[in-house]
Specification:
heterodimer, A: 280 residues, mainly alpha, MetI-like fold, 2 domains, 10 helices, 0% strand, B: 303 residues, two-stranded antiparallel ribbon, 14 helices, 2 strands, 1% strand, globular
Chain lengths: 280, 303
């Protein structure tokens, strides 16, 4: 079968390869350029190779408060991640009840997803301003980012619960489990792998979020804001070095998440169902 | 039996249908309350606030409550507004065409030409991973390619295609649209691939059995069945491009404008009422476009 693929396969495979090069090429290029020698510029040719620009990041802070902004982004990302998981699971469970007003809430979620980010930024900024509150990444920034991460978390939960076999829950209830016990011991373990997905979305979308945080982060920048600031006044490969580091960090987060999902799937496949083994 | 035969149990049994129906809505709202709270505070209130402030007045240093239409009058009276909105639609339309063609082709290859599920998942993940990395870095990473002395120009010169570096590669409409396509094609690939994977393969076999060519199958079977995915992807791409204000500023070198930039410029000048009025018009425009696209698809059915 594999030996006789149609010609269209090869054309499309070539197209797909080009797409991947288009997708990853620029990122790989700046990864290479971040190893420029000390005299090197923002493009090829490479004037020697060195770790000069990475060292620059770790040594003096003439380019801004990179490590401070990194730790803020990290904390904010974790805050947003945990909140996104909890609120999305609760929301997913809620929508199964088909309560009055769920249709309206659904369209609000879609609105939250498609609304131009600058409106959230501007609106939240104005409210805090008029109430006399100080904008801060952990308050106004946090809330603004949730309007971006929650729709993704909820859409995943909707997809999960639409495919959820309710007979598991009924079985638990028939055996006398309370509503909470059913969720804790039956529903949550079954949906656990998708929760990793929600966590991945929650963290990375927050960690890289820019537009909704711009006017809501206050005087302390998150990392994307810091990088954006650097684009206007830094003209050395140090910005590539920073870009490479933060991309590697993202890749690690993505890799760990995917590996966890994969390991969970394997463990499940190995253990399989314990039906018929009894409760000895 | 003895366990069930308590007054409370009998009561519950009698009232079960009614009691259940009531508690279903209450429990639903209780579970949804954190979500509703976040959306109320950070989505609905900000929109209301923007609408209110769009009627306010502004001095050079501060804004003051009022109810006047000055901001809208100025907005609709200025020819700049129309050209900027036109430019925004232009970016959205061109980006939409490219992301659709590329995204559809990629999804089509993955769904119908890659036969092993493992490979499908692996290649699909490869397409989606950049979505979880920083947009700003992905934007910046075009600079070494497109600059005057960048990779594209030096390659073309060394091949003898051009004698002088092309100026329009970076800080132009070209680089803006290239970056949009680079950033947002993923938003087309994922929903289209998702819909394609749900097409019953026997339908395609049936088309072949009835003598349809590959192209006919594509046009008459696959594309109509993929429409919902195409619409969802289109909603993403169009709204992201129309609401953008960073890509255009950065990749055009501040030489081109779209509505998002108009708003962010006003914000930088502390002209919040004027920014709010533009934002209201932008929101209305985006909602109209989505309303049109939603006529072709029922999102709730596609999850």
């Amino acid at each position: 079968m594999d030996g006789r693929r149609p010609r269209s396969f090869y054309v499309l495979a070539a197209f797909f390869t080009l797409f991947l090069i288009f997708l990853y090429g620029p990122t790989i290029t700046i990864a290479i350029l971040s190893f420029q020698g000390p005299q090197g510029g923002l493009t090829f040719p490479m004037r020697g190779t060195s770790l000069h620009w990475f060292r620059e990041l770790f040594e003096q802070q003439q380019v801004g408060d990179i490590w401070g902004s990194f730790s803020r982004s990290l904390v904010l990302g974790l805050m947003v991640m945990v909140t996104t998981i909890v609120v999305s699971v609760m929301g997913g469970l809620a929508f199964r009840k088909r309560f009055v007003g769920s249709g309206l809430l659904f369209y609000l979620i879609i609105t939250s997803l498609v609304i131009p980010s600058i409106l959230i930024s501007l609106g939240v900024g104005l409210i805090f301003n008029q109430l006399g509150l100080r904008i801060h990444w952990a308050s106004s920034g946090f809330g603004s980012q949730l309007t971006w991460t929650l729709p993704f978390g909820l859409l995943i939960m909707f997809a999960v619960f639409n495919r959820f076999d309710r007979s598991y829950e009924e079985a638990a209830r028939d055996q006398g489990a309370s509503a909470w016990q059913t969720i804790r011991h039956v529903v949550l373990p079954i949906i656990a792998p998708s929760l990793i997905g929600v966590a991945l979305f929650g963290f990375t979308l927050s960690y890289d979020e820019f537009a909704r945080t711009l006017l809501t982060a206050g005087s302390y920048n998150t990392l994307p804001l810091e990088i954006y600031g650097m684009t206007t006044n830094v003209t050395t490969p140090v910005i590539f070095a920073l870009g490479t580091l933060t991309t590697i960090f993202s890749f690690i987060v993505i890799g760990v998440s995917l590996l966890t999902v994969w390991a969970m799937g394997r463990r499940r496949a190995r253990q399989g169902s314990d039906a018929g083994k009894g409760m000895v | 039996m003895a366990v069930l035969d308590t007054p409370a149990a009998r009561d519950a049994a009698k009232q079960a249908p009614r009691g259940l129906a009531l508690s279903r809505h209450v429990v639903g709202w209780l579970l949804a309350s954190p979500l509703a709270l976040v959306l109320a505070l950070f989505l609905i209130l900000p929109i209301i606030m923007i609408v209110i402030v769009s009627f306010w007045g502004a001095t050079e240093f501060s804004i003051y409550p009022a109810f006047q239409f000055d901001n809208y009058e100025f907005l609709f009276g200025s020819p700049v507004t129309y050209s900027v909105f036109l430019n925004t639609f232009k970016y959205a339309a061109i980006t939409w065409v490219f992301t659709l063609v590329i995204g559809f082709t990629v999804a089509y290859f993955l769904a119908f030409h890659v036969h092993s599920l493992t490979w499908q998942v692996a290649l699909f993940l490869l397409c989606t991973i950049p979505f979880w990395t920083s947009n700003i870095i992905r934007m910046i990473s075009w600079i070494p390619f497109l600059g005057r002395n960048g990779i594209a120009n030096s390659t073309l010169i060394s091949w003898g295609v051009i004698d002088e570096p092309l100026d329009w590669l970076l800080f132009s409409d070209f680089s803006v649209i290239l970056t949009f396509v680079h950033l947002y094609t993923l938003f087309m690939v994922v929903p289209i691939f998702n819909t394609m994977m749900r097409i019953d393969k026997s339908l395609i076999e049936a088309a072949y059995d009835n003598g349809a060519s590959g192209f006919q199958t594509l046009v008459h079977v696959i594309i109509p069945l993929t429409k919902p995915g195409i619409m969802i992807g289109s909603i993403f791409v169009v709204t992201l491009v129309m609401g953008d204000f960073i890509t255009v500023r950065f990749m055009s070198g501040s030489q081109s404008a779209n509505v998002g930039r108009l708003i962010s410029n006003d914000i930088a000048l502390l002209q919040y009422p004027s920014a709010a009025a533009t934002a209201v018009v932008l929101l209305a425009t985006v909602l109209i476009v989505i309303g049109i696209l939603l006529r072709f698809v029922d999102i709730r059915k596609e999850l």
